[in-house]
Sequence to fold (860 residues):
Amino acid sequence: MRQYFDIKAKHPDAILLFRVGDFYEMYGEDAVVGAEIVGIVQTRKANGPGQFVEMAGFPHHALDTYLPKLVRAGKRVAICDQLEDPKMTKKLVKRGITELVTPGVSINDNILNHKENNFLAAIHFGKSSCGIAFLDISTGEFLTAEGTIDYIDKLLNNFFPKEVLIERNNRKAFEEAFGARFFLFELDDWVFTPEAANDRLLKHFETKNLKGFGVQHLKQGIVAAGAILHYLDITQHTQVGHITALSRIEEDRYVRLDKFTVRSLELVGSMNEEGTSLLDVIDKTVSPMGSRMLRRWVLFPLKEIKRIQERQDVVDHFFRHPEMKELLEVQLEQIGDLERIISKVAVGRVSPREVVQLKVALRALEPVKKACLESEEPSLMRIGEELNPCETIRMRIEREINNDPPALINKGGIIARGVSEELDELRSIAYSGKDYLLKVQQRESERTGIPSLKIAFNNVFGYYIEVRNTHKDKVPPEWIRKQTLVNAERYITEELKEYEEKILGAEEKILSLETRLFNELILNLAEFIPPIQMNASLVGRLDCLLSFAKAAQMNKYIRPVVDESDVLNIKAGRHPVIEKQLPLGEPYIANDVYMDSEKQQIIIITGPNMAGKSALLRQTALITLMAQIGCFVPAESARIGIVDKIFTRVGASDNISLGESTFMVEMNEASDILNNLSPRSLVLFDELGRGTSTYDGISIAWAIVEHIHEHPNARAKTLFATHYHELNEMERSFKRIKNYNVTVKEVGNKVIFLRKLERGGSAHSFGIHVARMAGMPKSIVKRSNDILKQLEAENRQDGIGKPMKEIASGGEGFQLNFFQLDDPILSQVRDEIKNLDVNNLTPLEALNKLSEIKRIITGK
Fold:
């Protein structure tokens, strides 16, 4: 226990898994917390006279089952192993921490999700800007950037790290800037100094400076990157040869999407548990690398037309050459997680099965390389040239490793026949022993004339010869008697003892020899880390483009024209997610949207609830974004002038936990948009101002639209969906504002939503009709209609103020009596009284009726 407490003192904030024999054990508070998380029984262990300590444990081979549960629960886990063989020491077995697993630092397959990266981030608060770095140790990807708090917030939300490192005492500053959603770990302040960071990075990359990575000017970013490498030292992750470069996140190459936009457009995750995101619809990737890369592409749309067109050209090529598409699909499916397997090679944690998977992947790359080189499509030919099937190492794996090896090295049977003469010889001794023993048995039987003689083995004295009592007198004098049974005797011989030593020694030697040969192969394999990482990246790219082609084919997407113009012209556009969720056979009502900065910069869309205003706004943004990631789009035709920022203010969401009302959230998001407008921005406002009173809301909405229209440098294309029909007046005063409405058709007193966008404003909003559809009590729906008619009539004469006062004071026609409550029983009572003929009612009938009404009310 003293040994346990000494080791625990070094990592007080981690759950310590302490190896004792065949078990990992947890003690004290760790046992209480750990047992609850992983669902095992908690017991007690004696700790000195009259003292007990809580204890929980599990078999060491179940580590892969229990470790992920602890890490997913946000715990840091220190794994303490026995550092020497208990058989070799008479004293206490030496133990030490072999790995510290945290939510951000893990290479365990059971903890990782193959569809997304597992990033560890570090943040350094500088005087004027903030530095950030991201590392996925499971893939070797290492990135850095610096900028304003807003920019860092955007990166944190897009990369969503599983753990964030900050300077001690900076937790409050971090939470004020970025919220409390991240798992934080504090490091000493000396780690976050330029000197310490620079030294640690140069030592790792073995370079004189960082100029070769293009990051030397990012002073705060370098500090954050250095802190990450220090953290790897602390967590005992010292073999990190797969981290071969530090890349800069190039802000100027990608469209700016703030966190509100990513959330409200549901790009990579839905706001509802059962919902579908854009990524769900277009992700048809077959490799983990493709899956992770596509997620990144969706969050970082391109601004460079050339790169967008290169992606489109490849998708086009797949349409023209379906045979290539099919070949690639078959080959890429075989590759598996190349990126994470090669990272395991670097950290020395790769299993024999994963090495065989690596061989399969490298073999699958050969037809891919050939097809790309023969394609005559420049982008594909470049990929073909850069792919490296690493033939020498692949052939070596093929030659040296069995095709179906065990998952663990200590199980043996990894190395193929013919690799090592010594190994083959030892195997023939160990595994062809039965033949040898049969020969000895036959020989001795003939020599002694004992026909029933047999050779067997037991754990007490090894191999022995058993002779029945009837033949006891024929036993040669050199045999040594070991055991007497009721009707037989057991003997051992010098020859059997020698053979026994040989056979038992062979099994141990086989294991150590196989381990040595396997480790030599891994050492050789480590030299191929850079080309195999490059292969993984190219496979991911091919997989994403293949996914675009498959999604386009399945969902009838077309290639948009992406150019430098300021025009956004979508013909018959559809919402990529909603169209997949419609009932079978129901077509999606497509709509045209045209915007530019000269004639039609701002579109004000009115129309009733549920008519599809929000869907129209979102589909415009999604089509633009899809076009700029190189994907085909759901429309009949589309021309997209490059957009550099997409802003959305869609839907109301209270942030009550931070003390912010719906309106406060709305205003925060709107001011963020107005402060960051650019000439190429695309802005979507949905129902702005509804969190406050009608007049306030109209005033704010009007002022915002006017500001965007009159902005001297930034004529941002804006879609503004609103309930405030008063805003339709703006078209008369501002030349680039145009009114549109989403149409409905009234048949009798029913409303049919046509979901078609048409020129011109709309007069009213059919909110009462939606209330009826939602199942509101009929009495309320009827009463609402009466009030609406009265209000509309009065409003035409006096403005909105007077009729509202009349309603409140119970003015004529608006007496608020208890029958207007939404209670069906009261309504029934009202109907009973209404139908009474009071003039012809006898006293007895009146009493009976009163009794009936009482029964309706009390239910008795």
Summary: The two ends are 73 Å apart (CA to CA). The longest helix spans residues 494-525. Residues 654-658, 799-816 have pLDDT under 50 and may be disordered.
